[in-house]
From TrEMBL:
Residues 461-567 form the MsrB domain. One of its GO terms (cellular component) is nucleus. This is Methionine-R-sulfoxide reductase B1. Pfam families: Ribosomal_L3, SelR. It is found in: Cytoplasm, Cytoskeleton; Nucleus. It is an enzyme of class 1 (oxidoreductase). Belongs to the universal ribosomal protein uL3 family. Belongs to the MsrB Met sulfoxide reductase family. Keywords: Cytoplasm, Cytoskeleton, Immunity, Innate immunity, Metal-binding, Nucleus, Oxidoreductase, Ribonucleoprotein, Ribosomal protein, Selenocysteine, Zinc. It catalyses: [thioredoxin]-disulfide + L-methionine + H2O = L-methionine (R)-S-oxide + [thioredoxin]-dithiol; L-methionyl-[protein] + [thioredoxin]-disulfide + H2O = L-methionyl-(R)-S-oxide-[protein] + [thioredoxin]-dithiol.
Amino acid sequence: MEALKTTERLSRVSGSFLWVGLWAHPTIFTRVTPAPTSTFSCPQSHRKFSAPRHGHLGFLPHKRSRRHRGKVKTWPRDDPSRPVHLTAFLGYKAGMTHTLREVHRPGLKISKREEVEAVTIVETPPLVVVGVVGYVATPRGLRSFKTIFAEHLSDECRRRFYKDWHKSKKKAFTKACKRWRDADGKKQLQKDFAAMKKYCKVIRVIVHTQVSPVTSAHTQLARSPLGSPSPTPASRSPGKCQPKNTMKLLPFRQKKAHIMEIQLNGGTVAEKVAWAQARLEKQVPVHSVFSQSEVIDVIAVTKGRGIKGVTSRWHTKKLPRKTHKGLRKVACIGAWHPARVGCSIARAGQKGYHHRTELNKKIYRIGRGFHKEDGKVVKNNASTSYDLTDKSITPLGGFPHYGEVNNDFVMLKGCIAGTKKRVITLRKSLLVHHSRRALENIELKFIDTTSKFGHGRFQTAQEKRVFMRTLWAKPSPETLWPGTLRLLCQAGVYVCAKCGYELFSSRSKYAHSSPWPAFTETIHADSVAKRPEHNRPEALKVSCGKCGNGLGHEFLNDGPKKGQSRF
C-alpha cells in the first residue's frame, strides 16, 4: 500500500518518474490475458506503402508510331530444303465473331468437349507482285544490290509514290517501263537478274494490296517473257496502266495501295529469283502462304486513344478521396536528387497507336472469297461440316464500321491490334512449334453470323424473313375489301364493288366463326382469280375474276373445316 502511494505521488510530477516507480515495485502488477483478436482486420485509413510497379518498361517509349502499317523487323530463318515461299502477307481487319469447336487435346479435361471462342476476321485480297529486290551481305549487314520493277504498275500502286496525285503529271516509273520494251533494256534486265543470282544472299519481292474500287488490268494480263514482244495497245501510254474492270474489292474510300517488301525463303537464290520473276504482275493468294491450323505472328499498330492521364495510361492506383489538387495522379515522381524525372516514372501522355507484334496466333480458317462454280456464285464460306447452312462470313448488316467481306479471309483466334479497316501484317512464326496446343488441328462446328449491331438472333436473312413473316405481313385481308362489301350484313349475294360481278353467297359469310367477313363458297367458278404471293407462301392473292379488283387473300388450312380454305 505504501508503494502504491509513492507511485501515485511521483506520477503527479512526471511521467518518467511514474515509470521508475512502477518498475521499482513490480509486485503491484497483475498479469492480464489479452482478449482474442477478431478474424477481420480493421480497414486501413491510409495507402499501402509499397506496390509493384505499373506498366512494362520493355515497351518504352509510349509514343505514336511513325508508320501506319506493321513493319516486319525480323524474318523467319531461311531453310533451303523447303520450296520457295513468301514469309508474310497483308490484310485488313474486318471485325470479330465467335465459333464453336470440339477441343482435341488428349490429357485435358476439356478434351472432346465443345468450346466457344472469339475469333477475328482479317480480309486478305490477293497481293500483286510488282518488283524484286536483291540484298548482298556486308560486314555492316544487308545492303540493297538491285531493284527491278515490273513493266505495268497500277494507279493504286503508283499513287503511293505521290503526295498529291491529282496535281502530278503521273509519270512515275515511265523510264522503268521502257526497259521491258526495247532490246537494250531487255538485255540489261537479263544481266540484272543474273547478277542477283550470283551475288545476292537475300531475295525479297515488292508487293502491294488491292484496295481501290477497281482492279487494274495487270491482274488479268500476264507479262510477256524476256525476248518476246509485249502487247502495247496504241491507246496506252508508257508507264500507265491497262484498261480496268469495275469489280470492287474492299469497302474503302482509300485509293492508295499499301506496298511492302516480303522476304522469300526456301530453295536456292537462283530459285528465288526465278520464282519472283515468274510472278511479276501476278496475284498471290493467301492460301499459298499460310495453311489451316498454322500458328503465325500478327504485326499492327494499335488503336489510338489520344492524350491520357497517368491513371488511364499506366493504370496506377488513384489517391485517396480528399487528396489536394486531384487524385488521378502519382504522389511521388522521384527523389530530390537527381534533379530530374526518371524514364520509369509513370507520366501522362500518348496512349494507343503503338507498334506491336503479337506472337503465336492460331489460324482457325482460311476462307475463300465469292467465286463461281458451274456458272453459280458460291458464297458459303461460313458453312461447316456440322452446320450446312448456306451463309457467308459477313454477319447480318455487315461488320460494324467495315462492311461486307467478299474476298479471301483469315480467321484468327482471339483479338488482334488495330481498329477496323486497319492494314494488318501477317508473318510466319519465327519458332518451330512442337506443343500440342500449336499442333492441334482445328475443326469448326459452327460460325456465328448474327448481326453485330446489338443482340443478334438470326444467322441468315432467309431465317429472319421466315421468323418475322407474321410481323411483316400486310394487314388482314378483310380490311382490303371494298367498304360496300365489308359493311353489308343482310342475306343475299355479294358482288364486286367495282364492276358488280357476283362473287359470294351470304350463307358462308360467318361460317369460319369469326366476326370478320370471310367466305368459303363462290357463286360462279370464275368469280374470283387466285395467284400465289412471293413473300407469303401460306396465302394466295384473291381478285375479281372479271375486272381484277383486289379482294384479299385465301388462307390455306384456315377454314371452318379441316383442310378447307377461306377467302
